[in-house]
Amino acid sequence: MTTADSLDDSFHVFDTTLRDGAQREGINLTVADKLAIARHLDDFGVGFIEGGWPGANPRDTEFFSRVQKEVTFRNAQLVAFGATRRPGARAADDPQVRALVESGAPVVTLVAKSHDRHVELALRTTLDENVAMVRDTVSYLREQGRRVFVDCEHFFDGYRANPEYAKAVVRAASEAGADVVILCDTNGGMLPARIQAVVATVLADTGARLGIHAQDDTGCAVANTLAAVDAGATHVQCTANGYGERVGNANLFPVVAALELKYGKKVLPEGSLREMTRISHAIAEVVNLTPSTHQPYVGVSAFAHKAGLHASAIKVDPDLYQHIDPELVGNRIRMLVSDMAGRASIELKGKELGVELGDDRELVGRVVDRVKERELRGYTYEAADASFELLLREEAEGRARRYFRVESWRAIVEDRPDGTHANEATVKLWAKGERIVATAEGNGPVNALDRALRVGLERIYPQLAKLELLDYKVRILEGTHGTESTTRVLITTGDGAGSGEDWSTVGVAENVIAASWQALEDAYTYGLLRAGVEPTE
Amino acid sequence: MTTADSLDDSFHVFDTTLRDGAQREGINLTVADKLAIARHLDDFGVGFIEGGWPGANPRDTEFFSRVQKEVTFRNAQLVAFGATRRPGARAADDPQVRALVESGAPVVTLVAKSHDRHVELALRTTLDENVAMVRDTVSYLREQGRRVFVDCEHFFDGYRANPEYAKAVVRAASEAGADVVILCDTNGGMLPARIQAVVATVLADTGARLGIHAQDDTGCAVANTLAAVDAGATHVQCTANGYGERVGNANLFPVVAALELKYGKKVLPEGSLREMTRISHAIAEVVNLTPSTHQPYVGVSAFAHKAGLHASAIKVDPDLYQHIDPELVGNRIRMLVSDMAGRASIELKGKELGVELGDDRELVGRVVDRVKERELRGYTYEAADASFELLLREEAEGRARRYFRVESWRAIVEDRPDGTHANEATVKLWAKGERIVATAEGNGPVNALDRALRVGLERIYPQLAKLELLDYKVRILEGTHGTESTTRVLITTGDGAGSGEDWSTVGVAENVIAASWQALEDAYTYGLLRAGVEPTE
């Protein structure tokens, strides 16, 4: 098993998606989202996960409490972010500093001012007091047994304005016991040549261990991060998919890919890089942003080739036309006007699911056509394995697996004069030759439909009782006419046994209720198939 | 008037959006699109516009014919792209080369192989013949009075494999009369340090005038372009918004912004940079891609600030928190409202919206509290400006703006035995002392509610007739219990006048229909407020 020990401490991959990444416009993370992202980041193998600012808001405080109870990290250490003590007070008496200790995180990143004008205008204190604030707070946290990193905010702008003062802050942090001092290009205006020169000078002049935190305002955050490493930085702060304030932060994925594949530097546990594409997309899913199709290394277009000039040469030697083997990062080559990739992946998928497709090229072709036709209408099978397996079995076995037939259903949502809502659904079904009419209420129309379906079927299929809807996602496709768009619903269902073997189903329709119903039907059909029940219809 | 003469020939901004940019997955340009983009690029002030490959396809041939009749360039020169002659033939006899001359473009970019293995595997000729092909084709085009640039394809990979051969191709091109030899990182796998070293060496060894063409596969195309300039390249090839094959090309906008604002190098006509945001969005509009919100310099988020921490200091001195004045690139600062925000950002936002909060600290405190409380329940105001403004006005004016009161509503979705769906909604409202009951059908329950609301109100508020729902987004929050989660809906509404002034509203409830209803209520209330209608309730 990969453990945190498999990589030594000499180089740090530090992720701040949950803190700085959450500053991105359009991201609004719940505690559950933060826990899910932390699990993905740890799976990926980053060394440090900065979880937020405990004490600054109830959500971050709750995250620190829950993550330590609910998540066992295999690779990462948990980091709390906070500020140096207030001017004129003792660190031990500062409630914000105490909250960092009380968070229980073994590592603390302190943000410190290193730009003289920021000290005066934003902190409204003297330059000397700011240095004392850094020294005191680091010392106090070290006494409390915490490992301390110090983020020098606005370092590069500060260095231009007053290099001696900026370096004095680095020295104070390092001398007080900070393990790494991170030079931050907070406003993101730097270019690589300047980053490299400043990091080299500060390293020579202070001897402190240095890290880099780059923002992407010039479109150079990845290059700036690598330039700092070239100059001797041994700690890189990044965010998944480059999420962050304004344009964003240095993107974790191209940074680690460059270090591993271009520098030949081992910065992740063995095998992690091959999970990169999956992890990138999974995190995008949690924050509810469409994964960028054109993201370096992990975008679906990153290894896509338009047919033409070099199509034939790619067949001879693909390495002539790609800078790395896409499998190294869990991505794949795509030929944009060829269904060869489609056939191959369907054959592979059939093998993976244990559905025998044999050498039946016609059958595979039928599946390819049906998937293409449905994806054109908005279905996505990448995220709906169970719906895909049902489709595959239907084609392979010549008929759909059916446990019930739907005659009709109805959902009513009513907003009453007292402000409460009534949600009621009725389903009319046939199962084992019997006509079933069932009605149920719920906290919404989909929930009411779900309950009515169970109420109707549970006597005939008691296996349904333990199934549980775990996740429900809605995406509006082609939003050019508002509510007249197509709606896609993805539902994740579990067997309630905590086996961790969930399955996902998809529905697409002109409205959210009809799309949800399709995904529900597939979810229960697959649940029964999975439980070994024989189809009856 | 700005003319091409206002910038000398010592540095070239060369745009290849219409040729290499069009290789992007998802872009498919008509001749009219290409003409429109060419106009925008010339307005912006690039020195060269590569229009395509005349003779390679009818569209590009037609473009070259029409652009010279229909467009008068103020700044740019038109460039035709093509390949060196075929092996074993005369350049003058090669129809592909003749098509370049016949295109009428005063400048030709020739693509040449400079990687030995590509010569052997893709061209299937000898290394010497390839050099002869470069020399002959350049000489022939020079005799025909054309200015010639040579793109050395796969140069950096070729240089790694066989540096002497790669340089021999550069020399042959330069000696035959090519004005600029462009070193291309065709597979995009390079990092800035390597680019800089190779460009410096080739420049010293060949004495040719060099250009750079970078692809973004490592996320470093902008930095790679600048690294080449640092090493002495005086010609940069870019595409608008970084469009291009796979991940994309070096993005024109951050490249020229860095050169003008960071290097202090005049590469565009006076005043052009201030048009950059507009031009970037206009080109995205033509190619039918949503402008990237997080693009450096020109994205709508590029100067958006979220954190409360920064907001208080931004009031004191905005330059402390932005790397450039956004007006320099035609963009603007935006304050986002979120639960991380404090009083300062609410005050700034009030100012931006023209709602006077004055020095009423208690009022601002009330707004902050209400925003925090609502964001905890799942509302998000950073993406719902109109809902925020309604909230702000309600607190500032002591009462909500109301144009109607809702007694109750009901939505019914019915799946009928024939497989069709019926969606029907009824609303019961009061407006101007009158009780209104209205029913409508739609293609989904939200659409039916939207129509019922309009049917009911349009007689009293004819202004509602022209409002249009433009976008509809659903997000499930805290998805731990599937359909029992909270649902957030964001709706974007426009006034149908094509003014581009849309507004967004938010609703949060235990189910998607109730959440949509809230967002619809806010959308119409804001639409009436915006139209100057006096509240009646």
TrEMBL record, chains A, B:
GO terms for biological process: isoleucine biosynthetic process; L-leucine biosynthetic process. It holds the Pfam family HCS_D2. It comes from the Bacteria. Its EC number is 2.3.3.21. It is an enzyme of class 2 (transferase). Residues 11-274 form the Pyruvate carboxyltransferase domain. The keyword Transferase applies. Keywords: Acyltransferase, Amino-acid biosynthesis, Branched-chain amino acid biosynthesis, Isoleucine biosynthesis, Transferase. The keyword Transport does not apply. InterPro entries: 2-isopropylmalate_synth_dimer (IPR013709), AIPM/Hcit_synth_CS (IPR002034), Aldolase_TIM (IPR013785), Citramal_synthase (IPR005675), LeuA/HCS_post-cat (IPR054691), LeuA_allosteric_dom_sf (IPR036230), PYR_CT (IPR000891). Belongs to the alpha-IPM synthase/homocitrate synthase family. This is Citramalate synthase. It comes from Streptomyces candidus.
